[in-house]
Structures are given as C-alpha cells and as structure tokens.
Amino acid sequence: MPGMMTLDLLETLRIVDDDVTAVVDAYLANPSCGTVYFGEGYRIDPALAVAEHPFAGTLMRQPWAGEELRRAAVRAAVMLAVPERD
Q: Are β-strands 36-38 and 84-85 bridged in parallel, bridged antiparallel, or unpaired?
C-alpha cells in the first residue's frame, strides 16, 4: 500500500500547515536543500517533488514566474508528494 500524500497527512492532522510552509520555504531558499524533515517523523525531498510534478518543474524554470506563483507551484508539488516516515 502506498504512503499517504502530504495533502492526506494535513487533512488527518498528522502535520500542520506550518510544516508544509517550512518545506516550501526550505526549497525556495535553496532548491538543492535535499531532504527536509517536518512534522513528527516525516521527511521529503522538495526538489524531487518539484521535478516529478507535471507543472511545478516547468514553472520553476520560467523567468517570468514571480515569487507567489513559484511558492504556489512548490506547495502544490509538496502537497501531492508522498513523504517518507522515520
């Protein structure tokens, strides 16, 4: 059985919105940040989430994409990714 997406973890209150924001912030500060730990025992590679997302990866390479749009794209990618559990 596949793991739960970040979105599912948020809906079931296993993580909170601040956890997701911290992952997005880490990626935007350093796109090669590697694994980010969040919540209680979860980890995710936001760069991998962005690369695997059909829209976010493309958008992040666009020079016209502003900060808010980039943040929204990264957040969407993180929300749909399946984090690992320690």
A: unpaired
Contact indicator for 51, 64 with CB cutoff of 8 Å: no
What tokens were used for 56?
Answer: 């976010």
pTM: 0.93
How many Å apart are CA 20 and CA 23, to the nearest integer?
A: 5
Spatial CB neighbours of 51, under 8 Å, sequence gap ≥ 6: 57
Per-residue pLDDT of 70-83, as tens digits, reads 999 999 999 999 99
CB 18 within 8 A of CB 65: no
30: alpha, beta or left, given left = phi > 0 and alpha = psi -120 to 50? Answer: beta
The three-class DSSP label of residue 41 is coil
Report the distance separating Cα 47 and Cα 52, nearest Å: 9
If we measure between CA atoms, which residue out of 9, 8, 11 comes closest to residue 39? Answer: 9
